[in-house]
Structures are given as structure tokens and as C-alpha cells.
Write a structure and sequence with these properties.
disordered C terminus; GFO_IDH_MocA-like_dom; NAD(P)-bd_dom_sf; Dihydrodipicolinate Reductase, domain 2; Gfo/Idh/MocA family protein; globular; Gfo/Idh/MocA_Oxidoreductases; 6-stranded parallel β-sheet; Rossmann fold
Length: 352
């Protein structure tokens, strides 16, 4: 497949934001086959030289004037909505860093703006492109665990000084909510959460969640910005054993239930009679960010649909709001039926 835009030319791309994540986008975009990175925007300029020789525009409008086919939005979360709407008004397709927006109300406006104009919009939920997670999802779809019992995630690490506009729920827990629903094919029917504020900032820095999914699977998510140890682990347990996915190393390990019993009774008591084979799967590990960009490029060219649509991004923001509402009220929240807004009604409601 030759990755070309209209008239057989490479797609012309722009980048908005040259922060820590934006610089990684610039690196990948500058090497992406069939795509030319033609301009970037950042009010702080390009002190790290991440723009790889392309012009630094002074505004989104100036970037649009360069004749771009799409833009990647890697600016702070609270700016996603107005930048996304400006791009939609200009007829520009967009890949927007997660979360899609800081609130479901803002996210719903983005969904309508892109859909009404027939534009391709996606949310950069990068964890979906991790080799271990994709392998795990395929094995769950193939019923390798049988019935699912529980999904447990642990996502913790040091406080990121670069993030000040949202808390750990919108920045990190959103990954686990998205991945759990996506991997299992189930919806959250209830969420109970607790948050804490240990770092002296206005937003939460620790979250503990218990959720129930539509087929009875229980989800547990532990997320914080308070640990000196970085951890990104997902454990899925079913009636045939469990999978452990480590997205830091892209490793997937399978722990099978045993079919026999040890004759050593004391060892049975210590180790458990259901212990079986342990398999760590070999796989070609690709950089998730590169795979994500390839998928969006292919979607623009009509060659693939492996992207996280804006409506999916909106749905996950609603789940984060349910989490925060639960923590605020000390109650279990039912996310209810997500009522996608019509052009005349641009709101999203949570039934609590």
C-alpha cells in the first residue's frame, strides 16, 4: 500500500503542542511513511528543537493556512475542546491526545463538530496499541480464559510536574477504564471510587475504583501519582487461569489453572492446588505511538478503522466523571445509558 493523500501526494500534517508528549509525536510524525510534517504550533516556541526543521506557526489558523490534511493535538487537556473546534471549523481532520476534552460537555461538542462536517476524528488512547494489550484482547475474544471473573489494574508512578490542569483520574485512570471495557467487550454498570489529595494540588493524585461490568465481571483499578516505582499492570482472571499484561515491557504472561494435584500435601497447602503452566508469549514489540499514527494515517486514506473514535473518547470521559462523582458523594454511581447529544442538545447526562 502506498500511503498518499489526494492526487498521490503525501498527507500534510500539523502538530499542536511541543510538550513532553508533543515532542514524541513530532519524532514519530517526522518518520511516518506517506506523511509530511509541515508545521507545528506552540506558544513557547521550540526550545528543544523537536520540530525537526519545520516552521513553528504562531497560531492554529497559521498552521491551517499551510494547507494541512490533519493535525495532532498534544496541548494541555483544557485546551483540547477549543482547538479541536477550530480545526473542525476549518475542515481539518484531527487526532486528539487523550482525554478528548476536560469534560463530557466539551467532548460532546467536539463529537458533533467533527461528525457534522464528515471529518475523521480520533482520540489518542495509546495503550490500545500496546503489543501486550492487543495480544491479550485477541486471546480474550478467542475465549482462552472462558468466563471472565475480574480485571485488576495497577497504574502508579511519581508525580508528573508537567500536568497541572487535570487530576490522576482524567490523566491515568482513564486508560484503565477505556482498556477494561475495550478488552472485555463489556460496559460499566456501576462505579464506586475513592480519591485522595496528598500532594497539595487542587486535583486528586490517588484513586481506588471498584466497578461492575455488564456481564458480571468485577473491575478494580488502583492509580496514583505518589509512588517512586512506576507500574503499569493489567491482570485478567477467568475460569481457566489469568493473563498478566505489563505495558511498560509489552510482555504478556499466562498462568493456567492446573489439572492435577501434587502428592506433596504440604506443598499443596503452600502453593495452591490449581497452579498450572506459566507461559510468557513471544511477540514482535512495536512502539505503540508509531502504531497509533499508522492507524490514523490509514483511516484518513480509507484503508483501516483501527482508531479510537471521538464517541469512544466521550464515553470514557463520562466514566471518569462517574468515578469523580462517586468519590465526591461517597456513593456507587451507575453511569446509566449514555445519551449522545443531537445537534440541538449538546449535553451528556449521567444517571446517578
Amino acid at each position: 500500500m502506498t500511503s498518499m493523500g489526494a492526487g498521490g501526494r503525501p498527507l500534510r500534517a500539523g502538530l499542536i503542542g511541543l510538550g513532553a508528549m508533543g515532542r514524541q509525536h513530532a519524532r514519530v510524525m517526522s518518520r511516518l511513511q506517506g506523511v509530511d510534517l509541515v508545521g507545528v504550533v506552540d506558544p513557547c516556541g521550540d526550545p528543544h528543537g523537536a520540530a525537526v526543521g519545520v516552521p513553528v506557526a504562531g497560531s492554529v489558523a497559521e498552521l491551517v493556512d499551510l494547507g494541512i490534511d490533519y493535525a495532532v493535538v498534544a496541548s494541555p487537556t483544557t485546551t483540547h475542546a477549543h482547538i479541536g473546534l477550530e480545526l473542525a471549523d476549518a475542515g481539518i481532520n484531527a487526532l486528539i491526545e487523550k482525554p478528548i476534552a476536560h469534560s463530557s460537555q466539551a467532548a460532546s461538542k467536539l463529537v458533533h463538530a467533527f461528525e457534522q462536517r464528515g471529518l475523521v476524528g480520533a482520540v489518542a488512547h495509546i495503550e490500545r496499541y500496546n503489543t501486550a494489550v492487543r495480544n491479550l484482547r485477541k486471546r480474550l475474544q478467542d475465549q482462552e480464559l472462558g468466563s471472565l471473573y475480574q480485571v485488576v489494574t495497577r497504574r502508579q508512578g511519581p508525580f508528573p510536574s508537567r500536568i497541572s490542569d487535570v487530576g490522576v483520574a482524567m490523566d491515568l485512570a482513564i486508560h484503565d477504564l477505556d482498556l477494561t471495557a475495550w478488552m472485555t467487550g463489556e460496559e460499566y454498570v456501576s462505579i464506586s471510587a475513592r480519591c485522595s489529595h496528598k500532594s497539595g494540588r487542587p486535583h486528586e493524585d490517588l484513586v481506588a475504583v471498584v466497578g461492575q461490568l455488564s456481564e458480571g465481571t468485577i473491575a478494580n483499578h488502583l492509580v496514583n501519582w505518589l509512588s517512586p516505582m512506576k507500574e503499569r499492570v493489567t491482570v485478567v482472571t477467568g475460569d481457566r487461569g489469568c493473563f498478566v499484561a505489563d505495558t511498560l515491557t509489552a510482555d504478556l504472561t499466562y498462568y493456567a489453572n492446573g489439572s492435577g494435584h501434587n502428592k506433596w500435601e504440604a506443598l499443596n497447602t503452600f502453593r495452591g492446588v490449581s497452579e498450572g503452566n506459566v507461559i510468557r508469549y513471544a511477540a514482535i514489540k512495536e512502539e505503540p505511538l508509531a502504531v497509533e499514527h499508522q492507524a490514523f494515517r490509514d483511516a484518513l486514506l480509507g484503508h483501516g478503522t483501527d482508531i479510537v473514535g471521538l464517541r469512544e473518547g466521550l464515553k470514557t470521559v463520562v466514566l471518569v466523571e462517574a468515578l469523580l462523582e462517586s468519590a465526591k458523594t461517597g456513593t456507587t454511581v451507575d453511569p446509566g445509558i449514555l445519551r449522545f447529544p443531537s445537534p440541538a442538545s449538546e449535553d451528556v447526562r449521567l444517571r446517578v
